Each structure stands twice: as structure tokens, then as C-alpha cells.
């Protein structure tokens, strides 16, 4: 479905993005109450444990076998931006960094030359359901930064700008909007240079709200992804839940319909370099991918300093971040 320079497309798994973004995944799992091990207090019989991506009873175990999530795995050549709006994520990595974050917090990790990390979803409540909503965005690194030192950064909910007007609210995770600047990106990120115009935002609209997307650089690529709501009018095109839209760089007025709506907005100047991908590695050519695989086999990107590949933190521990230098921050 296409009119002028607006193209509407269905959302798959993962979501289709454009350079400089590699892709985005949206996890929404209605987990039951937790058991004593912080896993689901429910039978796991019939699930393909270790590779459970089927939404059975409203939730998935992913690569976890007792606790949902993604046990230790490597990355090289790009960044992960993880937004947790509901529930919690427990992070551990080969740098020695760790964290528990959620309820609006964001983690930004530059994999650079190579890092291992785990992302587990502990079900902390034993007396009620544990809903999880999480977005993970992969942002590419240019060739000059692909072998940068890995970097770990937490953006706590309280430090993420919230901008609102008549009937809408925007949470600005990266970039510039309405005169306000999002949190500082890691030093080697494509988003660290304001000329690259990287913008990441979650936008909520009340019924009938009007929202203006301002003009961007003509080189920028921008997409929005409709998470919930009835219909949004995009200058004659209709965007519904489960659809995304590729937008022009020109300004655009969005008009919401009768229900509440929410969408993710990604924008940025393309890196415009060749992309070679193999699983968790993103480089510029196949030779670099092969070297990444060989180096991981030899070095494990620094090894794994945690007792379990699906490491989680004690149930009673609150939100926190421990940085590679040992510094601990609690929001």
C-alpha cells in the first residue's frame, strides 16, 4: 500500500527497519506468577525449551530453560538498545557489568570488537502475573567504529525526557525533539554525532490527538511502528495496529482516531556502507564475519565471569547497574 513517499507494511518478527538500524524486536509476554526460582509457576511441558518462540498461553521461554530470556551469547560490530516498559530484565556480561532494569529504563550497549551478555527475564512476583514488554533495537556501527571498545550504559526512566502537549506524550530515548535533547549516547555510537540525526522515541496518543512530526534532513530515513490503537491518519493513509509506515523526510501531521494509540519512532541518517550479517555478528564483509567467528571461538570475547549462562540476580535486589569498573548505581 503506497501513496507518494509513505509506504505502509506489516510488522513481522523482527520488525523491518532501515539503515542505520538493523532491526527491532518487540516482546510482549503475559507471564504467570513466578516460582521460587524466578521462572514461571506453570508447567513447561510441551515447550521446545531452549528455542521456545511460540506464544503458548501468552508467553515464551525464548532460549531459557528455567527462567525466560537469552542466556550468554556474543555480539560484535553494532549496538543493542533495550527498552523495558513493563517487567524486568537481568543483564550480565563479559566485561563484568550487570544490571536489573525495567518499568521504563533503557540499556544501551556498544558491542564493538566483541562482548558476551545475557538477558534474562526474572519473574519476581510470586503472588501475581509478571507481564513483560521489551523492545530491542540493533543500531549499526560504521566501519571505523566496529572494533571500538565495548561500552555499557544505563538510561534510567527518570532521566529520559518526557514531552507532552494536547493529547500526546513522547519519551525521548535518543535525539532532539521540540527543543529537548535525549540522553547522551555512548561515545562510539552513530547516535553520538548530532549530524547523524538519530532519533528513538515512544509516542502515546489519546483519542483524537494530533501529532506533528517535523521535517528532518533529506538524507534521514524514518519509520514508525504501530503498537496499539485503532487507526492513525497519515495525510490520507491509514495506519493500524500491527503495521508500520516508512515516512518522508518532510513534515507530517498524524491524526489519531477514536482509541488510545502508541507507536515507536526510529529515524537516522544512513551509514551507507556494506552490511554482512551472521547471527550475532554484523560487519562489512564475509571475511570480517569469519574472523569474528574465529576470534570468538578462541577468546570467548573475554570469557564469562558469572556462575551460570542464564545468570540472574537475587529476587530481593532492586533496580541497579554495576559498571565494569565496579561502580554501582541505583536509580
Q: How does the major sheet shape up?
A: 8 strands, antiparallel
H/E topology pattern: EEEEEEEEEEEEEEEEEEEEEEEEEHEE
What is the helix tally? 1
Percent of residues in beta strands: 35-45%
Biggest β-sheet: strands ordered side by side in the sheet: 1-2-21-18-23-16-13-12
The overall pLDDT average reads: 96
CATH superfamily: Jelly Rolls
Q: From the coordinates shown, what is the CATH architecture?
A: Sandwich
Q: Output the structural class.
A: mainly beta
Number of domains: 1
Uncertain stretches of 5 or more adjacent residues: none
Number of strands: 27
Instruction: Assign an overall shape.
Output: globular
CATH class: Mainly Beta
Helix content: under 10%
Explain what you see:
It is a single chain. The protein is mainly beta and 331 residues long. The chain has one domain: Jelly Rolls (Sandwich). 4% of the residues lie in helices and 43% in strands. The protein contains one helix and 27 strands. It has one helix at 286-299, and strands at 2-3, 6-10, 21-31, 69-75, 78-86, 88-93, 98-102, 106-110, 115-120, 130-140, 151-155, 162-165, 168-174, 176-177, 180-181, 199-205, 210-213, 221-228, 231-234, 237-240, 243-247, 252-256, 261-268, 276-278, 281-283, 320-322, 328-329. The chain has an eight-stranded antiparallel β-sheet with strand order 1-2-21-18-23-16-13-12, with no helix packed on it. β12 and β13 form a beta hairpin. The radius of gyration is 20 Å and the shape is globular. The mean pLDDT is 96.
Amino acid at each position: 500500500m503506497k501513496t507518494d513517499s509513505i509506504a505502509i507494511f506489516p510488522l513481522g518478527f523482527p520488525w523491518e527497519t532501515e539503515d542505520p538500524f538493523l532491526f527491532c524486536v518487540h516482546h510482549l509476554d503475559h507471564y504467570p506468577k513466578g516460582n521460587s526460582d524466578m521462572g514461571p509457576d506453570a508447567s513447561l511441558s510441551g515447550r521446545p525449551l531452549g528455542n521456545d518462540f511460540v506464544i503458548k498461553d501468552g508467553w515464551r521461554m525464548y532460549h531459557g530453560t528455567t527462567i525466560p530470556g537469552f542466556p550468554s551469547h556474543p555480539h560484535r560490530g553494532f549496538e543493542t538498545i533495550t527498552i523495558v516498559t513493563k517487567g524486568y530484565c537481568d543483564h550480565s556480561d563479559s566485561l563484568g557489568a550487570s544490571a536489573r532494569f525495567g518499568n521504563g529504563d533503557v540499556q544501551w550497549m556498544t558491542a564493538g570488537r566483541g562482548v558476551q551478555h545475557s538477558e534474562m527475564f526474572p519473574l519476581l512476583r510470586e503472588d501475581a502475573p509478571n507481564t513483560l514488554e521489551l523492545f530491542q533495537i540493533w543500531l549499526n556501527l560504521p566501519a571505523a567504529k566496529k572494533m571500538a571498545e565495548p561500552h555499557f550504559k544505563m538510561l534510567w526512566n527518570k532521566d529520559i525526557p518526557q514531552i507532552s502537549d494536547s493529547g500526546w506524550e513522547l519519551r525521548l530515548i535518543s535525539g532532539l525533539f521540540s527543543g529537548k535533547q535525549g540522553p547522551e549516547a555512548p561515545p562510539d555510537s552513530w547516535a553520538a554525532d548530532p549530524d547523524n540525526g538519530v532519533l528513538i522515541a515512544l509516542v502515546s496518543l489519546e483519542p483524537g490527538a494530533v501529532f506533528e512530526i517535523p521535517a528532518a534532513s533529506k538524507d534521514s530515513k524514518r519509520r514508525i511502528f504501530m503498537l496499539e490503537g485503532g487507526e492513525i491518519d497519515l495525510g490520507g493513509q491509514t495506519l493500524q495496529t500491527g503495521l508500520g509506515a516508512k515516512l518522508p523526510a518532510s513534515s507530517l501531521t498524524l491524526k489519531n482516531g477514536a482509541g488510545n494509540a502508541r507507536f515507536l519512532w526510529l529515524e537516522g541518517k544512513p551509514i551507507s556502507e556494506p552490511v554482512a550479517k551472521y547471527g550475532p555478528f554484523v560487519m562489512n564483509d564475509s571475511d570480517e564475519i569469519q574472523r569474528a567467528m574465529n576470534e570468538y571461538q578462541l577468546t570467548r570475547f573475554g570469557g564469562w565471569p558469572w556462575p551460570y549462562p542464564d545468570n540472574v540476580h537475587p529476587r530481593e535486589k532492586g533496580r541497579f547497574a554495576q559498571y565494569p569498573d565496579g561502580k554501582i548505581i541505583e536509580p
